[in-house]
Specification:
By secondary structure, this protein is α/β, with parallel strands linked by helices. It has a domain of about 130 residues: ANL, C-terminal domain (GMP Synthetase, Chain A, domain 3, 2-Layer Sandwich), CATH 3.30.300. The chain is about 35% helix and about 20% strand. A hairpin with a 3-residue loop joins strand 27 and strand 28. The longest helix has 19 residues. About 55% of the residues are buried. The structure holds adenosine-5'-monophosphate-propyl ester (PRX). Adenosine-5'-monophosphate-propyl ester binds next to helix 12, strand 20, strand 23 and strand 24.
């Protein structure tokens, strides 16, 4: 989809230069590119010294002596929560950190001082449970402020958090907790989602049967349904913090101490634990949050409408905004509950000035119609952001006109769980934008589109997206698997970080990200591995073999389509089809439920027996099939093509 109609977009009338309001920063922003280009290490070191309050300032910038195990600011000492909370108290302890909006309509306002007290009480509570620096803590909660509090309490005492998205299943919790041998699990009784309750504690109970490392489970009461509490193991959050002091000495952390691990899907069935460390990560998120969103901490009301369970929420709801003393909105629920104008009503109510969301959401808003935003006064908005997947030009223009009132610049930000912070994006003061292009690498970052040989392609051509120099917020490794880290990111072309995305460079050297070129799907901005879904499918007794592809989808960018061969003696039926889709949702989580499952007597394979996923993708997208002479059985293709055409027809009906 990102590829659609690029030529059309290069017309002069589709260029959006910075407006007067932002042009004031033009000179300063332009200078940053020059500074980054002249010496990226010195540039980032200056950012680190200026934006972070250190216990001990680093003398070092980049240590590349053991590449690709890079270190940044390695002899510095700091605490992330001191930077996100304590240092703001004197200047503005009463300033609102979070305006929180619950899905059922309840609201809370949390100042920096209140956040300080909440974090410290919990941090003391965690210490009372024996949690120490370096211990791992898994967090599986809904979008309540306490999720941020839990992360910060860990960072306060040097424990490593691993947030598990609240939409994942019990089995996904097990994988993640087991991989890190987490000592503690923090959860809620339940989470609100479209008026019903997601049973978070119940999922944890199932998981904890298989996670012997977990000594305690702390439960925050949100939805009030009955949950079972195991004596000696489970503790209510309110009981844990009762009587704890609101002062807690922050742990002094080394710059390269582990801050958190966040799991993301790769090309195998096992998710990768992406490791982020303390100083480089904080430097990256604080700098990019300030520059890309042009944050004016005195006046902005900023809203990143992502879930904290993904990296976008870690970097741009929690760490970046708090480091910059920003007032943010956090919303608990879905944008269509109770009505499809929920986002717009929140923007009006809180006077939101900056909105950061994903193309899938924007396409859903388009589908629902302009009458919903039109019900509300959105003139407080001054800047819009997009993240997570390629934004198609139509959605960009719609966002610009109907939400941004044609005056708000749009920053289309490309980055990944692995990169930690935004890498490619316009800066609103200087970059002329083109709908659908993430434009250029930000200051201090060097991106290149390369060919198979790792050589930069010429303007006007496509290739593989790489980052050519290390950067502070980069992942340090994959938890427990250094080899996989080297192999996945640093082995395609010597010295270049392999992003896994395809990209085009246009004649003006603007980047157009085309999406994943590996076996990772991007469903509504969420990364899901084809292998993960395949292994969930084959774990069902009826399934002999499965192949999964991401097919182009108008709303969610890609949709999961599965081709399934049943065991002999098992008959295909609509009921089985539903059951298999449900089975995947139970195994991984509802986001991984295939949109469609196509039963097929066989799967197309090369003569060496490899499933031809590319071919299946082409069939789904109705593209010409090209050369299929290496296929073991060309008949299979004909059968699948016919079935897929049938499925598409009934989808349309
Ligand atoms: O394919 C790219 C896509 O999302 C992937 C990273 O996913 P994740 O680690 O879950 O992080 C998402 C939020 C940062 C990338 O490899 N992606 C992300 N942002 C964009 C994008 N594709 C195109 N344009 C973007 N702005």
């Amino acid at each position: 989809m990102a590829d659609s109609g690029i030529e059309n977009l290069l017309h002069e009338d589709r260029l959006f230069p910075p407006s007067e309001e932002f042009a004031a920063q033009a000179t300063a922003q332009a200078a940053l590119y020059d500074e980054g280009e002249a010496d990226f290490v010195a540039y980032w070191k200056r950012q680190a010294l200026e934006r972070i309050t250190w216990y001990k300032e680093p003398t070092e910038g980049l240590d590349d002596s053991n590449a690709p195990f890079y270190k940044w600011f390695a002899d510095g000492e700091l605490n992330v929560t001191f930077n996100c909370i304590d240092r703001h108290l004197e200047k503005g302890g009463d300033k609102v950190a979070f305006h929180w909006v619950g899905e059922p309509g309840d609201t809370r306002t949390i100042t920096y001082r209140e956040l300080y007290e909440d974090v410290n009480r919990l941090a003391n509570g965690l210490r009372s449970l024996g949690i120490e620096k370096g211990d791992r803590v898994a967090i599986y909660m809904g979008m309540v402020p306490e999720l941020a509090v839990a992360m910060l309490a860990c960072a306060r005492i040097g424990a490593v958090h691993s947030v598990i998205f609240g939409g994942f299943s019990a089995e996904s919790i097990i994988d993640r907790v087991e991989d890190m041998k987490s000592k503690l699990l923090i959860t809620c009784d339940g989470a609100w989602r479209r008026g019903s309750v997601v049973p978070l504690k119940e999922n944890c109970d199932i998981a904890m049967e298989s996670t012997p490392s977990v000594e305690h489970c702390v439960v925050y009461k949100r939805t009030n349904q009955a949950v079972s509490m195991t004596e000696g193991r489970d503790i209510w959050w309110h009981d844990l913090v009762a009587g704890e002091s609101s002062e807690c000495e922050p742990e002094v952390m080394g710059a390269e101490d582990l801050l958190y691990v966040l799991y993301t899907s790769g090309t195998t069935a096992k998710p990768k634990g992406i490791m982020h460390t303390t100083a480089g990560y904080l430097t990256g998120v604080a700098t990019t949050h300030a520059l890309v969103f042009d944050i004016k901490s005195e006046t902005d009301v900023y809203w990143c409408a992502a879930d904290i369970g993904w990296v976008t929420g870690h970097s741009y709801i929690v760490y970046g905004p708090l480091a910059n003393h920003t007032t943010s909105v956090i919303y608990e629920g879905t944008p269509d509950y109770p009505e499809k104008d929920r986002l717009w009503s929140i923007i009006e109510e809180y006077g939101v000035t900056i909105l950061y969301t994903a193309p899938t959401a924007i396409r859903a808003f388009m589908k629902w119609g302009v009458e919903y935003p039109e019900r509300h006064d959105l003139t407080s908005l001054r800047l819009l952001g997009s993240v997570g997947e390629p934004i198609n030009p139509e959605a960009w223009i719609w966002y610009h006109e109907n939400i941004g009132g044609t005056v708000c610049p749009i920053v289309d930000t490309w980055w990944q769980t692995e990169t930690g912070s935004i890498m490619i994006s316009p800066l609103p003061g200087v970059t002329t934008t083109k709908p659908g292009s993430a434009t250029k690498a930000i200051p201090g970052i060097t991106a290149a589109v390369v060919n198979e040989e790792g050589e930069p392609v010429d303007p006007g051509s496509g290739g593989f997206l790489t980052i050519t120099e290390p950067w502070p917020a980069m992942l340090r490794s994959i938890y427990g698997d250094d080899e996989r880290y080297v192999e996945t990111y640093w082995s395609q072309h010597a010295g270049l970080y392999w992003a896994g995305d395809g990209a085009k460079l246009d004649e003006d050297n603007y980047l157009w990200i085309l999406g994943r070129i590996d076996d990772v799907m991007n469903i509504a901005g969420h990364r899901i591995s084809t292998m993960e879904v395949e292994s969930a499918l084959v774990s069902h007794a009826a399934v002999a073999e499965a192949a999964v592809v991401g097919a182009t989808d108008d709303l969610t960018g890609q949709a999961i389509v599965s081709f399934v061969t049943l065991r002999s003696g098992v008959d295909e039926s609509d009921e089985l089809n539903d059951e298999l889709r449900k089975h995947v949702a139970t195994k991984i989580g509802p986001i991984a439920r295939p949109k469609s499952i196509i039963f097929t007597p066989d799967l197309p394979k090369t003569r060496s027996g490899k499933i031809m996923r590319r071919l299946l993708r082409d069939i789904c997208d109705n593209r010409s099939l090209g050369d299929i002479t290496t296929l073991a059985d060309a008949d299979v293709v004909a059968t699948i093509t016919a079935q897929q055409a049938e499925a598409r027809r009934s989808d349309e009906e």
